[in-house]
């Protein structure tokens, strides 16, 4: 009797959008050592903080949501936030991610930057974000055809791609909007009825009965944004100390023209907004003029050759791909509604380090930011511009909350035509990872199979820099006579 042989194991490689694809794009070789080598580096601070802040925000939301009285803000660090930090620290340790010494040796938000960022993230964004969240930590997954390597080979027919998001639903937005609308209506009734400008805009809103309450709220933010007519005249977002009744996230959405245009044309009744948190500063971004001129959304090799300055915007563009891909992954889920936009929170902006502030100032001076100097208050810009980081004290406490909030929130509007492009970009990344893996499996050394290429600051914080190929010799080194045994 002929015994049947066991069929060949069928594998579908699984890639996480942030843990694999964005990490590979940061540096191929570092990704190989960190993710595929069972060689956890002693202190991958960026990786640790990214996971830490994500975990803390999720846990804080659950704590808020599960409390019967929906805990009011601000939360006390010692009593409310520290226990959350402790839980997440333990969870990460199990995964081999240990906190940096700066965190362990310094206690509390006054002493260490990481706890300060956690404290600010929860207390600044929590009151506005948590009431809007419909679902937290939603795992999204999809399958794509595996791209072939240059020799036409592939490990499998498909690959799986995944990510974790928080979801805001239009129903939730409507609910919060109704509360705000009611408040605004009360305020409007008290306003001087002779104000013609307000009256005409108000009529425009009330006449448009077809719009949902969220749309009405967005409109109303453009008319009356707070308890006071002065806020309307400024039509802008003040420090967190004022306007406590205004949901800042709705307000940012209201002030985003592209989002409003999309919403007005949106055919469906219900939709979703997806949320992601980043433990980093807002990346260098194309200014509005550059963006309009170049339609900067793709970063393939051709675009880099044509305009090498696009290289500066790599991270910015990759985050847009990420949100577009998340929108596609979310659309694969049965219970999902169409995703209209994504919001990224760059949480380091709430407590920027000295290095962050220097980089922010450089971006502004070089006009490489989507929030240019003329949209920053004169006080904030003067402070930042005149600050001497070598001699003066850190200034992050002196900058306004508005400056920090503006820089920490990014709205990425979903345009269907860009989703396919983003997916193709990520297919290309998977192709490169797979090609390097196949090369290594076929006997190439790790350093030959994986490219060592990263920005200087990534290399500076990299645990593998001592033996990495990229460790170029400085001119001094080159001039030295190589050591030989006589
Ligand atoms: S030193 Fe730089 S190029 Fe080398 S592995 Fe680390 S990040 Fe990559």
* End-to-end gap: 70 Å
* Biggest pleated sheet: 6 strands, mixed
Total DSSP helices: 22
* Helix/strand class: alpha/beta
Q: Can you tell me the residue ranges where pLDDT is under 50 for at least 5 consecutive residues?
A: 204-211, 222-243, 299-306, 473-486
Helix content: 40-55%
Q: Secondary-structure element sequence?
A: EHHHHHHEEHHHHHHEHHHEHHHEHHHH
What is the radius of gyration? 25 Å
Q: Kindly estimate the percentage of residues that lie in beta strands according to DSSP.
A: 5-15%
Average pLDDT level? 80
Bound compounds, each kind once, are: iron/sulfur cluster
Overall morphology: globular
Can you put this structure into words, describing what you see?
With 486 residues, the chain is of the alpha/beta class. It folds into two domains: 14-164 and 430-437, no CATH class; 170-419, no CATH class. Helices cover 51% and strands 10% of the residues. It contains 22 helices and six strands. It has helices spanning 17-26, 28-36, 45-66, 77-94, 101-105, 113-129, 170-190, 196-207, 213-223, 229-234, 248-254, 257-265, 288-294, 301-306, 314-331, 354-365, 378-386, 401-408, 416-441, 446-449, 456-460, 475-479; strands at residues 14-16, 133-145, 158-169, 272-278, 339-346, 409-413. Strands 1, 2, 3, 4, 5 and 6 form a six-stranded mixed beta sheet that branches. Helix 3 (45-66) crosses helix 4 (77-94). The longest helix has 26 residues, at 416-441. The chain is globular and about 90 Å long. Residues 204-211, 222-243, 299-306 and 473-486 have low confidence and may be disordered. Bound molecules: iron/sulfur cluster. Residues 27, 29-30, 452-454, 458-459, 462, 464-465, 468, 470 line the site of iron/sulfur cluster.
């Amino acid at each position: 009797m002929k015994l049947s042989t066991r069929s060949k194991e069928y594998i579908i490689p699984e890639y996480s959008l942030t843990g694999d694809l964005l990490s590979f794009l940061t540096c191929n070789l570092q990704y190989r050592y960190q993710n595929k080598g069972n060689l956890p580096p002693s202190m991958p601070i960026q990786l640790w903080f990214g996971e830490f802040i994500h975990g803390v925000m999720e846990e804080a939301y659950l704590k808020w949501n599960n409390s019967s009285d929906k805990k009011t803000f601000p939360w006390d660090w010692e009593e409310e936030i520290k226990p959350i930090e402790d839980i997440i620290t333990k969870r990460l340790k199990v995964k081999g991610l240990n906190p940096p010494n700066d965190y362990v040796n310094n206690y509390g938000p006054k002493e260490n930057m990481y706890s300060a960022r956690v404290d600010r993230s929860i207390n600044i964004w929590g009151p506005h974000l948590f009431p809007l969240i419909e679902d937290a930590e939603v795992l999204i997954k999809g399958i794509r055809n595996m791209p072939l390597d240059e020799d036409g080979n592939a490990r499998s027919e498909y690959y799986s791609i995944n990510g974790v998001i928080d979801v805001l639903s239009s129903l939730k937005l409507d609910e919060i909007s109704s509360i705000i609308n009611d408040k605004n209506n009360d305020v409007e009734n008290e306003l001087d009825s002779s104000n013609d400008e307000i009256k005409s805009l108000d009529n425009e809103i009330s006449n448009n009965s077809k719009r949902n309450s969220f749309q009405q709220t967005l409109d109303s933010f453009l008319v009356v944004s707070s308890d006071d007519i002065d806020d309307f005249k400024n039509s802008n977002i003040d420090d967190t100390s004022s306007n406590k009744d205004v949901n800042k996230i709705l307000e940012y959405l209201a002030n985003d023209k592209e989002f409003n245009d999309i919403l007005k044309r949106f055919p469906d009744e219900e939709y979703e907004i997806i949320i992601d948190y980043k433990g980093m500063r807002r990346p260098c971004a194309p200014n509005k003029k550059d963006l309009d001129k170049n339609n900067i959304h793709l970063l393939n090799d051709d675009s880099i050759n044509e305009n090498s300055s696009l290289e500066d915007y790599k991270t910015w563009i990759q985050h847009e791909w990420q949100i577009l891909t998340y929108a596609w992954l979310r659309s694969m889920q049965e219970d999902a509604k169409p995703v209209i936009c994504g919001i990224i929170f760059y949480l380091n902006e709430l407590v920027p380090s000295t290095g962050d502030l220097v980089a922010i100032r450089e971006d502004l001076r070089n006009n490489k930011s989507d929030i240019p100097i003329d949209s920053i208050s004169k006080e904030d810009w003067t402070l930042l511009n005149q600050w001497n980081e070598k001699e003066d004290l850190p200034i992050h406490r002196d900058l306004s909350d508005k400056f920090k909030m503006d820089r920490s929130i990014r709205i990425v509007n979903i345009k269907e035509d860009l989703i396919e492009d983003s997916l193709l970009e990520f297919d290309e990344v998977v192709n490169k990872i797979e090609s390097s893996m196949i090369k290594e499996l076929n006997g190439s050394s790790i350093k030959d199979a994986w490219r060592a290429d990263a920005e200087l600051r990534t290399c500076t914080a990299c645990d593998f820099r001592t033996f990495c190929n990229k460790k170029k010799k400085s001119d001094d080194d080159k001039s030295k006579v190589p050591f030989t045994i006589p």
